[in-house]
Design brief:
CATH superfamily: Ferritin, core subunit, four-helix bundle
Distance between the termini: 80 Å
CATH architecture: Up-down Bundle
Largest sheet: none
Number of domains: 1
Strand content: under 5%
Radius of gyration: 21 Å
């Protein structure tokens, strides 16, 4: 009986590193996390600009939807990261390409709505592709994959509404 307990304890101890390793982020997970976090930061900043710079109610409403949905996505993403690797820090900035997009919006003047609409369409198409590619990858972190699987319907909604914004 005692040998059986010792054997079970040894087996459980030897399997613990395997379970731990599977719950960590691999390089694909980390790359996805960085891209999604930076993209989410861009969406929030662009929506804040739309709230301040657009004079069109439809654009302001769209921006509010983006702010609400992306704030939730950011919080959810932080929760996944904290649950898997509390030492990992998500970026608080945006990519160089997204900074260029923000600069374009900042300097758009009366063309703000046109440029914002165009960016929302192109960035949500790119975000959908990023998420779908990640979901299709094998051996990704289960918690992160579950988070990612919830994104396409939200991104599709954002894309659909962006396409319906009035052209000016």
């Amino acid at each position: 009986m005692f040998k059986g307990i010792v054997l079970m304890a040894a087996l459980a101890t030897s399997l613990a590193p395997i379970a731990l390793a599977q719950s960590q982020f691999n390089s694909t997970d980390k790359a996805f996390l960085m891209k999604v976090a930076k993209s989410n930061n861009y969406e929030i900043q662009a929506a804040q600009m739309a709230q301040n710079m657009s004079t069109n109610g439809a654009y302001k409403n769209y921006a509010q939807m983006i702010l609400t949905d992306h704030a939730k996505a950011g919080d959810d993403l932080k929760g996944v990261v904290a649950a898997v690797d509390s030492s990992m820090q998500l970026p608080t900035g945006v990519s160089a390409a997204d900074q260029a997009h923000l600069d374009t919006l900042k300097n758009a003047g009366k063309d703000f709505d046109v440029k914002y609409r165009r960016q929302m369409i192109s960035t949500h198409v790119a975000a959908l592709k990023l998420v779908q590619n990640y979901i299709a990858q094998p051996d990704d972190n289960g918690q992160l994959k579950t988070f990612a699987q919830g994104l396409p319907p939200v991104f599709q909604k954002h894309l659909m509404y962006a396409k319906k914004l009035p052209r000016q």
